[in-house]
Amino acid sequence: MLATGGIAERFVTDVRELPDAEIVAVASRSDAPAKAFADRFGIPRAYGEWAALVADEEVDIVYVATPHSAHRAATGLALAAGKPVLCEKAFTLNAREAGELVSLARERGLFLMEAMWMYCNPVIRRLAELVRDGAVGEVRTVQADFGLQGPFAPDHRLRDPALGGGAVLDLGVYPVSFAHLLLGEPDRVRADALLSPEGVDLNTGMLLGWDSGATALLTCSVTAGTAATATVTGTTGRIDVPGGFFTAERFVLRRNGAEPEEFTADGFVGDGFTGDGGMHGLQYEAAEAMRCLRAGETESPLVPLEGTLAVMRTLDAVRDRIGVRYPVDASA
User: Fold this and answer.
1) Pairing of strands 45-47, 25-27
2) Using CB atoms within 10 A of its CB, is residue 211 exposed (0-12), middle (13-18) or buried (19+)?
3) CA angle at residue 265 from 264 to 266, to 5 degrees?
4) Among positive and negative, which fits the CA dihedral 177, 179, 181, 187?
5) pTM for the whole thing?
């Protein structure tokens, strides 16, 4: 475990329920938070620096749970030390950084995967399979939203350009990734946003277009709590995913002229994003990373690196359209 924030807590909670997984070490930038995290979750070793963690010979894979502004540095450090990595999303601050990490992993023959847990969710996997099999005909529209109520103070990381602040990378990555899963990389990107005084997006709408005629209308916000639903509409039907689409427990398929069909996943354990008891759905991405390592695979077919790069290019395009630039972009 590299980092000790909220997503790290949820990940540890879920992974500890897997029968063949063990959290053996945790690192932070100083001793105190690492030790507190280790004591809380019964982790054997705690390190006050990242370098000590990636040098630990008993660590098979590093889970990078830092804010995305540190993903390039943390993941690069682990890969350089020969460690496979499961890295939180948004994968990096921009597509250039993402490409650097993918190149490094491929050069060293190491496993690397974006922790896009939505793609590993069995309900979302079933949805994508049905769409590929033509359950709704040719996809014409995808709609998805993810917004938090806020407000966030000016000194919060979500308002800081140096930390990759704004709605797009924290929340918009989910709707964009959902559209990518079903339609691939868009041919056209349009966007509009309300910006903060610091220059990050607070409320953003995205319109993606494909040469096939399909479109995706996506929104994200850190000023309004949205329903977080998703809908896929095709020429012969529609799929509706209720609130918390990124950690879906069910969806409804409505074929033209037929009764609605509800789909769930046998054995699914999850209670949404809030973390109010139970598991959170992060166990599926952990299980997939473990499967890949045991099979000698350097990337996951569920979360392919080319898809991660495509999503980052789309997020870059959105930021370009709305005028959000991070300091790291200047070195591109």
Assistant:
1) parallel
2) exposed
3) 120
4) negative
5) 0.94
Distance CA 89, CA 86 (A): 10
Sheet with 112-114, strands from edge to edge, namely: 62-64, 85-87, 112-114
Instruction: Provide long-range contacts, Cβ within 8 A and 24+ apart, for 35-38.
Output: 36/4, 37/1, 37/4, 37/8, 37/9
- Model pLDDT for residues 119-141, shown as the tens digit of each residue: 999 999 999 999 999 999 999 99
Active site (catalytic) residues: 89
Closest CA to 37 of 57, 28, 281: 28
Per-residue pLDDT tens over the stretch 164-216: 999 999 999 999 999 999 999 999 999 999 999 999 999 999 999 999 999 99
DSSP 12-75: HHHHTTSTT----EEE-SSHHHHHHHHHHHT-SEEESSHHHHHT-TT-S-EEE-S-GGGHHHHH
